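Run folding on both entries below.
>entry_1
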Amino acid sequence: MNHEEAKNTKKKKEGSRVQGAGGKAQKVPVPNHQSPITNHQFPIPNLDDWLEIGKIVSPQGLTGELRVYPNTDFPERFEEPGKRWLLRPGETELETVELLNGRYIENKNLYVIKLKGVSDRHQAENMRDCRFFVPVSDRPELDEGEFHVLDLLGLQVFMQSSGEFVGTVVDILPSGHDLLEVKFDPAFITNNEELTTDKAQKTVLIPFVMEIVPVVDLESRRVEITPPPGLLSINN
C-alpha cells in the first residue's frame, strides 16, 4: 500500500485540484493476504493500485463532521466535493463515499470534512480510523521538475562525471530538503577506497536538490548525481 506524495528538486508542490465525481455507493475489494476473498462480481485489485491519502482521526462537533489527517502532498482532495474511497478498520473492501465539503484547520495539519449520510456525532464516531484511498491512475499531473515518490523508488543512481553505477533509490525521507536514500551497489563500494567494506548492503542519504541531483530520467529509470567530496561516506 502506498502513500501519495510528490517531490521537487527545488520545492514541494501541493498539486492542482482534482474534481471528484459523484455516484451511487459501491464496494471494491482490497486484497487481504491473510484471508483471501473470492468475489466473482468484482476483481481483487493489487494493493499497488491504490494510494492512501488520509485517515479519519476523530469526530468534529455534533453534526457528523470528521477530522482527517492528510497523508498526501495533494490535501486539497479533501476540499473538492465528489467520490472518494474509504476502508473501514477490519474490512477488506473499499467503500465508495461522497464528500460534500471540507476545510483546512490552520496550524493543526487537519481537515474537517462532511460525508453524505453521516449526520450526527455517533455516526461520526463509528468512522474513526477509517482511511481514504484514490486509484494510482488518479494522481494529479505535476509540473516540470516535480516527481511522485512512487516514480522515484527503484531508480538507478549514477555518478554524472564517470557514469559509475552507485546504487538504487530505496526511499525518500522528508527533511529541510528531501533526501534520497540510496542502497549502495557492492561493486561501487569495492571500487571506492573511502567506502569501507562494512558499508556493504548499507545506504547513503543524498539531498534531493538540483545542485546534487541534476538529472532525473524517469523514462530511462536513471538518476545522475554530482555529490560534493565526502558526501557518500558521511552518512553511514
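>entry_2
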Amino acid sequence: MFQSYFSVGGSAESSNACDVETILNRPSVEVVEIALLALQGAGVELVEWDVLLRMRMGDFSYLVPDDRLEDACNILESIGLPSSPPSDLALESQGDLYARGRFYRITRSTQPFFTDRISLYPFSLATFSRSELSEQQPSHLSPSRCSSILVPRPSAVCAFIIRTMAKYPRYCYTRTVLDNESGELVLYFFLGYTLHNLHKEEEEAWQLEDKDRRIAAASNTVKQ
C-alpha cells in the first residue's frame, strides 16, 4: 500500500486514507495536486501532455514511462480515484491515440459533461527526445507543492502531430482529431489566442479581434 503523507489545504493525511467519498469532495485541482504528489513520491517521472488543449475540457493529461504505467495506475487507485474508461462513442470519435490512455475520475459527478479526469498515457505515444523537454512547474495549480515536471516544447508537439497525421488516411477519426488539435496549437502558440481560458459562449469572441496584428506577430514568430 502506498504510504506517502502530504498536506493539501492545511490538513495532513495519508494517501491510503483518501477514499472515493473523501478525495472527490475536493476541487479538481486539489485532487490533481494529491495525485501528482503521490506519483512523484513513488518516483514516477511525468511529462505534461496536451495541457493547452485539454485543461479547458477538464482533462489533466500526462505521459509516464511505459514500464511505470501500471504502477502509476495502481497509485491513483490507491488514493481513491476510480477508473473512468471512456464510452465506446468517445473512443470511436477520438481516435487511436485516445484509446491508449488510462482515465481516472477526479469529480463526484459521473455525467459525461460534468466529469473531470486525470489521463495517463505511455511515453512511447509521443517519444520526445530529452532535448525537446524542459523542466517546469505543473500548470494545474499555482503555487503547487509538486516538484517540476517535464513539458514538451511547442515545436515538438506540432512536429509529433504532423508526423502522426501522416500515418493515417486522410478521412479517419484519428487524423481529424489531430488536424483539429494542430489548428488549436497554431491559434495558441502563433496567434496568441487562449481559448482554453474562455467559456464556451465566449469562444466566438476571438473572431472579432484584430486578426491582422496577430497574423503579423505570428509571421515574425515563424521567421525566428
